[in-house]
Amino acid sequence: MTDRSFRSILTGSFSTPCAKNPTVAMMEAGYAKAGLDARYINCDVKPENLAAAIAGAKAMEWAGFNCSIPHKIAVLDHLDSLAESARIIGAVNCVQIRHGKLTGNNTDGKGFLASLRKLTDPKDKTILILGAGGAARAIAVELALAGAKSITVANRSADKADSIVRLLKENTGCEAKTLDWSGNLAVPEGVDVLINATSIGLGDAEAMPSVEIETLAHARIVADVIPNPPMTKLLRSAKEQGCQTLDGLGMLVNQGIIGAELVLGVKLSAEIMEKTLAVIFGVQD
Ligand code: NDP
């Protein structure tokens, strides 16, 4: 006779394609270090199967799950409640399941914020965001809620930048405006934090958003959301211009830590999660 439980806590991710998403390795390393008998299952879920996948997670009493591309908006139709910032952002990447009820959160922007706080407090800071997709939207809302003084959004498609500015003005007290981005962007003077929230640089160490490189020196901190490769060309260039830099690994690790706190109530080790990703991405110490 043994008292041991053979039932693991179940969590995971729904996205498609999912094979290149390393989150499972990072989360299971964190679970193991915390001594949790918990699994993180990386599921390839096509859009037409999202409802069935969610019903399955409920039926199997999963503790929660992450949603990634393309489900971050579609999942809203399946939730019982929504955290405030996720409501403003209009997208959810982390769902808790309690007593069969689903609560949606957005941890992307919160993960970026936690990573940024290691270098600076965003309160009263002047921010320039490149990009206006889901990551930019989540980051902009969290920075505004954290007290940023002003947020400027520059995006190839101006209408999406306009929509983030409208969102910030309607829901937060932060000053918000757009900056035209045709040709090479000249970074204005007085920027505290410049953030690349476009997908430029993902999987390509030589790709870089079109900016006038010497004007990067106008930004005190240059951050990138790109986790792979972590040392993007933008960050290398910013370093050469004397800026402090922040890579996308910290955002990825912190959104995982925040998600685990929401779903399991456990604080995971950032160190083991960072190490796991560094090995996967071939980052040298
Ligand atoms: P979206 O597809 O929603 O947005 C992509 C953004 O990149 C848009 O603003 C798009 O501009 C811009 N963009 C793409 N290609 C170009 C180009 N050639 N020239 C100019 N602009 C371009 O993606 P997400 O916001 O969801 O994700 C963005 C990046 O953030 C991804 O690389 C993702 O891996 C990363 N990410 C990192 C996380 C982390 O934890 N580190 C978490 C979440 C995302 P336009 O609107 O004009 O198309």
From TrEMBL:
Keywords: Amino-acid biosynthesis, Aromatic amino acid biosynthesis, NADP, Oxidoreductase. Residues 23-95 form the Shikimate dehydrogenase substrate binding N-terminal domain. The active site is at K72 (proton acceptor). It is an enzyme of class 1 (oxidoreductase). Shikimate binds at S68, N93, D108, Q255. It catalyses: shikimate + NADP(+) = 3-dehydroshikimate + NADPH + H(+). Residues 118-199 form the Quinate/shikimate 5-dehydrogenase/glutamyl-tRNA reductase domain. Pathway: Metabolic intermediate biosynthesis; chorismate biosynthesis; chorismate from D-erythrose 4-phosphate and phosphoenolpyruvate: step 4/7. InterPro entries: Aminoacid_DH-like_N_sf, NAD(P)-bd_dom_sf, Shikimate_DH, Shikimate_DH-bd_N, Shikimate_DH_fam, Shikm_DH/Glu-tRNA_Rdtase. NADP(+) binds at E84, G131, A132, G133, G134, A135, V225, G248. Its EC number is 1.1.1.25. Belongs to the shikimate dehydrogenase family. Homodimer. Involved in the biosynthesis of the chorismate, which leads to the biosynthesis of aromatic amino acids. Catalyzes the reversible NADPH linked reduction of 3-dehydroshikimate (DHSA) to yield shikimate (SA). This is Shikimate dehydrogenase (NADP(+)). It comes from Asaia krungthepensis NRIC 0535. The lineage of its organism: Bacteria, Pseudomonadati, Pseudomonadota, Alphaproteobacteria, Acetobacterales.
